[in-house]
Amino acid sequence: RVCQTLPMGDDFYALARFGHDMAHLLAKLSATAQQDTQIATAVDELQRLTAHLQEQWQCPVSIDVTELSGYHYHTGIVFNGYINSETQPLVRGGRFDGMQSYTQQPRQATGFSMDVSRLLAHTQLDAPSIVLVDYAALHNADKTQKQTLLQQVESLRQQGYRVTMPLDTQDHPADVTHRLSFADNEWQLQSV
Description:
By secondary structure, this protein is an alpha/beta fold. The chain folds into two domains: about 5-120, BirA Bifunctional Protein, domain 2, CATH 3.30.930; about 130-190, no CATH class. It has helices at about 10-20, 20-30, 30-35, 35-55, 115-120, 135-140, 145-160, and strands at about 80, 90-100, 105-115, 130-135, 160-165, 180-185, 185-190. The strands form two sheets. Strands 5-4-6-7 form a four-stranded mixed sheet. A three-stranded antiparallel sheet has the order 1-2-3, with no helix packed on it. The N and C termini lie far apart (about 75 Å).
């Protein structure tokens, strides 16, 4: 009843009823609303963003144009990111343009906040493989052997190993999984 007395009231009603379903909302908007350049620009931006997210990230995207959460400085799209079937967002953020930076030049930006502790509850990290270079072998290595060692260390790091080159005999991580020792004229990786 309130919407019936407002200019473009049917559009407000459609927004309230179909704000979470872009296809239905666009079908229900009046010709005046559909021809409005600001509305058309906003709809186009939302549709391009939705298509991009679905193509690039292969994630389900839902748009609710009635979403009003956000901060007073947001000037564009605000978003919430959810994980699994949780009802509270894991990530919240939005677009803000025209903020003053230290150079006093207006800048464009997108910011977000994330609940990292909740993210960790959904993340399973592989235990790292930690390699300790044998201190005695390192200390006694000649220039050629050290050069070979550095190449092997780089190769191991590229494979995802964490390699520690100790400063003395007591310098070692507690959770070592491998040892890199010099034997038979070569550096050898051995499980601990």
